[in-house]
Amino acid sequence: xxxxxxxxxxxxxxxxxNIAKVLIEEKLAACVQLSEIESFYNWKxxxxxxxxxxxxxKTRKDNFEKIKSKILELHxxxxxxxxxxxxxxxxxxxxxxxxxxxx
Length: 103
Fold this sequence. Notes:
InterPro entries: Ion_tolerance_CutA, N-reg_PII-like_a/b, N-reg_PII/ATP_PRibTrfase_C
Pfam families: CutA1
Protein name: CutA divalent ion tolerance protein
CATH class: Alpha Beta
Helix content: 25-40%
Shape: elongated
Strand order of the largest sheet: 2-3-1-4
Largest sheet: 4 strands, antiparallel
Distance between the termini: 11 Å
Family: Belongs to the CutA family.
CATH architecture: 2-Layer Sandwich
GO molecular function, one term: copper ion binding
Mean pLDDT: 98
């Protein structure tokens, strides 16, 4: 099993918690961590600075497309960040945890 982290950001902690809960309940993610961040970016040729909630979603690589679809379904942004990060190295025990808690 190949493990990955999927990252996305939300405009509110409530939206982030909802996405995390659905991903865990549907066994698409083994763990989702939420962090409050401040994001700086250009959107439609305008400088933006917003408080957001970052989700780090630990899962199987095979679940990326399902997670992407679920985020697009539940997310309020027109263009949500959905990034896959490969886990290059992790303890066998943690990889087992991810495998045991996802479909």
